[in-house]
Each structure stands twice: as C-alpha cells, then as structure tokens.
C-alpha cells in the first residue's frame, strides 16, 4: 500500500470509525461468544501473497466485532472508564505517522519536551504543589507511563533505591545483598492488585493495611503507624507506602494528610506514592480538589488521564518531587544512547521500557480542543449521572447503597444474600443489554455501576435501572430472599 | 468535536500524514534545536476555553516539526529501525476507535483471541518449534509486550519464580527471603542495557559474560559453563541466562545451540531467554533462519516486530514454551477481574501492565496486506542495501569494517584514533543531512550505519557514503591521523 492508496483507505477508515462510534448503541455491549470463537474464522497461517484490502475490512465486521466488548457503548458500566475522544484519536494518528521512539531527548526532542510541558499543564490544572512542576528549573516533574501499574512499580523501585542508599550511607559496612529481605512496603487492602504485584516484581514484602466499612474503607493513620512500629521493632525496614485515592472496588479515599504525617520525611522517611488511577481526573474541578489535599506529603503521584480525561489509552500521568530519585534508580548509559545534550531530560530513565511513543500529542490536542472548562464539564456530567443512578437505587427499598458515591461509581446491591446478587449480576450480563462487574466489600458481593462512556445520558441510566429492577424481581421470586 | 467534524478533520489528517511521509526526504533528518526550545513556543497553561482545530494543526508545523528526529526519513541510519507502514497505521486507527482494554478475555474476547492467533501465525512464519505455538491445546504460546525490555524482565521474573519454587520443593525448610540474594543471572557484555536493568528491577545479581572480537562478540558456551560452575561453588544459584541474537552494538549472535547445552534443562535448569529484538524479523527468510537454530533449548523468545516487520510501535512479540511459568509468576485474581470463562487466556497475567491495547490488529493488517513474500522482500532489500554500503566502505582503504555484516547494520570506522572517528560522527550529525549513532567495540569508537526507513533506496546509501567520505577527508586533514 503506497501513500496514494493510504489517502483513500485512510479516509474510508475515518468514516468506518465515525460510523462505529455513532451507532455503537445498537451493538450488543457484551459479546456472545465462547473462548476460542475466533480461531476457526480465519486461516491457520498468514497468506503467502497479499490479501485485498476489501477482504481485510470485510473481516473486521465478520471476525472482530462479534467478539468485542464495546467499552464506549453508553450501556457499558463495567470496571472504570477508558477514554475515547476524537481529538485524541487525531493526535494518535499523527503520533503513528511521526513514529519516533522518544527514549532520549536526541531521539526526538519534541517528543520529550512536549511531554514535560504537557505534564506541567496538567499539574497546574490539578493545582499540584510547585515541587511537582518541572518548569525551567524545577527538581520535580512529570512523565507519561503506560499504566498505573507501571507507575506504582517505578515509584516502588525508586523508593527501594533511595532506602538502600540511605541505609548504606548510615552503615557503610552493611552488606547490600541482605537489605532487600528486610524491606517492607505497605498499601491498603483495598488497593489495586497491581500494587501487590509491584512488591512481587521487586522481590520485597508488601503488607496490606486492613480497612473497615465504618471508616469508609480508608486507611487510618493510626493503623499504618502501628504497623510501622511493629515492623521496625521486628528489625524490618519500612520504606514505601502506596496510598489510594479512589479505590477500584468502591472509590474509597485514603486520608493522605493523616497518612502523610506518619510516612512523611520528618518521622520515618518512607516514600509515599499516591495512586489515583481513576479519581485523579476529577481533581481538575475545584469542588473535588480537596480530595487531593495532603499531596504535599507525597513523593510521587499518578493517575490515568487515559481513564477519565478524554485522552485515549495509554497515558498514565505520573509526577515526582525529585526526578533524581527516579533517574537514579534506573540509569543506564550505553554509548549508543549518548548524545551531545546530556544535560537534557532523557525519559527512558523514568520508566521500565526503553521505547516510548509520542503520547503527549494526545494530551495537547485534547486539552486545547476541550479547554479546561470542557474537561471539567465532562467530569461533572458523569458525577451527576452517578448521583442520578444513586437516587434511583435509594428510592427502591429492596436495594442498598454499599459505599459513598463520591464520583462516577455507584456500589449497590439487593438487600439479602450474596447468592441473590450474584444471580442478578449473571442475569444482567447474560442479557447483554448492559455490562457491569462486581466487587467484594466486607464479604458482601456488590454490583459496581461505573459511568464510563462519553456518550452516556440520563436516558441510558434510567433504561439500565429499569432492566436491573426487572431482573431483580425475577431473581427474588426464584430465590429465597 | 463530534463525529461529523471528525469525519472532516480525520480526512484532513490522513492527507497531512500522507504528505508528511511522501515528502519526509526534504526535511532535516536530525533537528537543529537546543534543550528547552519548545517551552517558549506555547502557553504556560492549558486554555480555559477551547482553541480552534485550525490553530492546533498549524502548531504541528510551528512547534512540533522543528524538534522531530525523522525516524522514517531515508537519511536516518541511527539506532535500529522502528516500523512504519500504512496497513499498520490503518489498523491502529481502528484499535483507537474500538478502544478496548484487553486485560482479560472477557474485557474483549476478540482482543485476546486475535493476539493468540496472530502470535501463532508469526511463530509459524519463523518456524518456531511446536512447543511455542498455542494452537488449541498447546502449553506454550505468544503474547505482545510493549518493548523487548519488558519481555526480558517478564522472562527473568518467571525464571526467578520457577527457581524459587524448585528450591523450596527440594528444601521446604529453607527460608524464602534469603533465596533472592543467592540468585544469579547472566547475559553477554554486549547485551542491551535493559537486560542489566531487568536484574536491578528484580533485585538479583546480573553477571556480564565477557566476549571477544576474535569470537565475533558472541558468548562462548565454555565461558558460561565456567562462570556457572564457579558461582555454584561459591554457593550462588544460577537461574537465568539471556542470550542475544543481533546485539545492539554490532548485531552479534550468541551461539545458542552451544549455550543451550550449558543452560538447558538437563544440566542446570537455567531459564534461557533469547532476545532477538532487531534480528528476529529476519528469521522469516529461510536464508536467515539458521541464525535461530538452537531455539529449541530456550524457555522464552522475543523480538520486536515493531522494529523491522512493518508493524508500528509497540509490538514486541514474545513466546514461551510453558505459559504456566509466566502466569504463575504474576497471577492476581481480584473479584472485579473475574468472569465466567476463567478457563480462557487472560493476558494480563503475562505482562507487567494490567491494561493493554488491541495491538494484534496491526499484525493482522500488515501480514495480510504484505503477505509473507512481501515481508521477506522487505527484509531482503534492507540486507542488500547494507551489503552495498559495506562494499563502498571496503573499497575505501581509509576505512575498515568493524564487525561482520550479517543483516542491515554496518559497523565501520576510519582506520586510526577514536578521536578522529568521534569528530567525524559529530560533523556528520551536525551537518544534519544524515543521522548515525556510535558504539564501542573492544575499546574502539565505531560508527553504526543501520538501514532503517522503509523508503531507503540505493541512491540514499550512495549519497550518505559520499557525504561520509567528504567529511572524513576534512577531518583527516585537520587531525593528526
């Protein structure tokens, strides 16, 4: 395919995309296929000679679409949102065409520099403390990671490196190899599974801090303080705490000001990382910004702009107060990556992979095409829709709300057994009209209703509720309540 | 921006992309900017109200392009190639629109299933042993990672997990915490810096195996065997060896058959991972496939289809013989990720991040639009051009070839001091007509000429050589030779 054919096929693809998104509501949100469905629909091997483009495009509808879970359908309420906007898609097309691999400044200066400035733009939207802004002389700054999992891991590795250095500085005779086995990290028992996984990867202990329904599933400063004291008494070395703002099960918020006083530099020199993967986007609204109070105690902060800020995946935005902490943990300098401007920022020192796409173009297009106000409106619309759904649930005596509705997630359940709720969810998903996933809160099986699609409106919410109550009625008649 | 405007702007973007790539030759391949150039060209904060799309697009040329290193210019010979093809860009547009996050099978069955089948297609093109093919009943299979760095790390983590399990199985009383500090991994001193970094991340020793120019920079089985024996005698536990096929400095090939006999299951139960990041694509040609002989000894194998196989970044293709080894190292099963088809493949257990894009669409479009023959032709053309460049170098008595030219990389230098070669490279890059990066081989500063762009032709090679000889003449006249 040459450029001339691309001009034609590209324009057809633009129409195919617009058609798909304009009519997505008419598709079954959750696919009706069994594992292995696809293999029999296509050949067992790649063709020797080229297929025609017409055949390839025809197969998108025949082979792919029947197995797609439509994350951008207004009937999709599962997990958390993933962003999808037209400006982001346009920027991504451009990024693909430029196709630079921006590991170092020299590998494409624009790629590194736009990223640093866009992270400053976003940091200012969030009113982050000055420490986190790169500016022209700052010691901190931001970087785009692929996912929150990677940000959590990168922060943990930087924390480990800092801790080992501090220990060796105070006790140079201590053998370095034994230190790792004494290190201990902490996170909430509500934290995302990737936090526990980060500990596994780095080969360090990760302790889960218990939370209570009565505390709204937030980690209490006192609990963390006690665990740290016990571990220190047992000869362990606490070095990292991952706080969560907006947990995956119920969108709970740890009290980071209180926790900051425990883990902050004054007392224990524990690295505090804040994972606000979902909730972070909302902090651009003044009314939600207080949820981030205490950020001044953190060493690093991350959220997924690719979740709720209209920037298509992947764009997980992470800031650190001291970039030297990150860079020091990873620095590798082979000659083939050196260049004449070593004083510049080389972002591969900030992340696990070496290669990186030109992802800041998406931020640039989206921030400019929506403006801060447009982005705020978008967040507020989802929160309002969640409140509307909450009211519907609260108005029905058979149901209960299982956790505070702060942003765009409503956790709810039928009063009664886990079994009845499990059956209800199964029926809902098997109906394939709407799609939800569950969570477990204090042993209770709970349904999560997450506002996800850009195009979800009040009528979709009411339609979803009607379906839920209708199936609930059926389930309750069948099962002992 | 709504779908109607996207139809218009998307088509304009398709033309902008086609224009950019058709005329890329006329741009300066290596940008003439200083660190910090971009910040002053744009506002310090995001706009409150939306900008117009016209302004955004105008700024692409004003703000971005002056700072782009044009990786797809036929004058770009730096690093290694990164892929860029029209079918891949079309597929990526579609992937962005579907915008599913395919962490689990249920999160979008098509995303997981097409990936597994595409990895089988590619595995068959490479004539991988049956063990690495998923098929319908295989124990192995493939997965798309973001980068080779991640594949190396994932393999190392799986190896660590398997080693710890084996040790605990044979000695259940042994405390698990101490094992990590006894583990030792190996790689060539020519291996990519990300291999050493993988060891740092996992907190395990990584030893570099010395190589010699006389052995063509390949790791010798005897050297590895000796190091393993010494380490075992010292109470350490060898568990992982990363072999390289096509090293970054000089495209050297470790002798994996010989090494496989050392690290293979029979003798030491060491996990052998093969990193063929660049060279891997060439193994689809029968004449280069012998370079992969010995693959049967490997536990895992990876190369970057996004480098040399026309599939745009990111698409780092990795296979394992036993997927249970990978999955076991990472498995996390929170309720919000469970679904009714737990017998299916959930690819987030195979990787560091949780989220993942629908990247296999790019493979599907590219394999079908080129066909195997088209892909082979593409590889062969680059190798031929490299041979042509090699001939030009060899015909000039002032220069020498510094390493065997096997694929699309030519390592060469002026006979003489490192200083004269450093000066030559500096002049070349400052001239900004062509772009190369150096490497260090046996203490010698060497210029790397890597065939990169899809559109590079013989005339570009000859033009580059003319420029090199012209600047070499200048440099030699100025510096004592």
UniProtKB/TrEMBL annotation, chains A, B:
Cofactor(s) recorded in Swiss-Prot or TrEMBL? pyridoxal 5'-phosphate
What Pfam families does this protein map onto? Pyridoxal_deC (PF00282)
Q: Which gene encodes it?
A: DDC
N6-(pyridoxal phosphate)lysine is found on 307
Q: Does the keyword Lyase apply?
A: yes
Q: What is stated as this protein's family in its record?
A: Belongs to the group II decarboxylase family.
- What binding partners and quaternary form does the record give? Homodimer.
Leading EC class: lyase
**Which InterPro entries does the entry mention?**
Aromatic_deC, PyrdxlP-dep_de-COase, PyrdxlP-dep_Trfase, PyrdxlP-dep_Trfase_major, PyrdxlP-dep_Trfase_small, Pyridoxal-P_BS
Task: Provide the GO MF annotations for this entry.
Answer: aromatic-L-amino-acid decarboxylase activity; pyridoxal phosphate binding
User: Which GO BP annotation is one of this protein's?
Assistant: carboxylic acid metabolic process
Q: Cite a GO CC annotation.
A: cytoplasm
| Listed pathway(s) | Catecholamine biosynthesis; dopamine biosynthesis; dopamine from L-tyrosine: step 2/2
Its name, as the record gives it, is: Aromatic-L-amino-acid decarboxylase
Q: What is its EC number?
A: 4.1.1.28
């Amino acid at each position: 395919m040459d450029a001339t054919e691309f001009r034609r096929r590209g324009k057809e693809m633009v129409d195919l995309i617009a058609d798909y998104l304009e009519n997505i509501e008419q598709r079954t949100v959750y696919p009706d296929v069994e594992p292995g469905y696809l293999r029999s629909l296509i050949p067992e091997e790649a063709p020797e000679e080229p297929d025609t483009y017409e055949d390839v495009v025809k197969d998108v509808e025949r082979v792919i679409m029947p197995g797609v879970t439509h994350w951008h359908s207004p009937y999709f309420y599962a997990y958390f949102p993933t962003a999808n906007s037209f400006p982001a898609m346009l920027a991504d097309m451009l990024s693909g065409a430029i196709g630079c691999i921006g590991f170092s400044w020299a590998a494409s200066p624009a790629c590194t520099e736009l990223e640093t400035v866009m992270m400053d733009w976003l940091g200012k939207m969030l009113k982050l403390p000055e420490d986190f802004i790169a500016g022209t002389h700052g010691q901190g700054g931001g970087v785009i990671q692929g996912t929150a999992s990677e940000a959590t891991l990168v922060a943990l590795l930087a924390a480990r490196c800092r801790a080992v250095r501090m220990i060796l500085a105070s006790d140079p005779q201590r053998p370095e190899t034994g230190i790792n086995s004494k290190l201990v990290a902490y996170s909430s028992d509500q934290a995302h599974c990737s936090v526990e996984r980060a500990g596994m990867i780095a080969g360090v202990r990760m302790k889960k801090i218990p939370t209570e329904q009565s505390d709204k599933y937030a980690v209490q400063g006192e609990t963390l303080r006690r665990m740290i004291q016990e571990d220190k008494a047992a000869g362990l070395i606490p070095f990292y705490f991952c706080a969560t703002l907006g947990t995956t099960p119920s969108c709970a918020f740890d009290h980071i000001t209180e926790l900051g006083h425990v883990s902050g530099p004054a007392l224990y020199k524990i690295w505090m990382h804040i994972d606000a993967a979902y909730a972070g986007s909302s902090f651009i609204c003044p009314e939600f910004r207080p949820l981030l109070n205490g950020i001044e105690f953190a060493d690093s902060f991350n959220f997924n702009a690719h979740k709720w800020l209209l920037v298509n995946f992947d764009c997980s935005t992470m800031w650190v107060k001291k970039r030297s902490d990150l860079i020091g943990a990873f620095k590798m300098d082979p000659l083939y990556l050196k260049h004449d401007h070593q004083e510049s920022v080389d972002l591969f020192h900030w992340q696990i992979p070496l290669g990186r796409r030109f992802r800041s173009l998406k931020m640039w297009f989206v921030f400019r095409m929506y403006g801060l106000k447009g982005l705020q409106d978008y967040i507020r619309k989802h929160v309002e829709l969640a409140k509307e759904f909450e009211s519907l649930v609260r108005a029905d005596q058979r149901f209960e709300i299982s956790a505070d509705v702060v942003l765009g997630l409503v956790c709810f359940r039928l009063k009664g057994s886990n079994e009845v709720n499990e059956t209800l969810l199964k029926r809902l998903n098997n109906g394939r009209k709407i799609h939800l996933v569950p969570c477990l809160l204090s042993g209770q099986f709970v349904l999560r209703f997450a506002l996800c699609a850009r195009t979800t409106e009040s009528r979709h919410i009411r339609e979803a509720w009607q379906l839920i109550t209708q199936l609930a009625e059926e389930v309750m008649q069948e099962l002992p309540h």
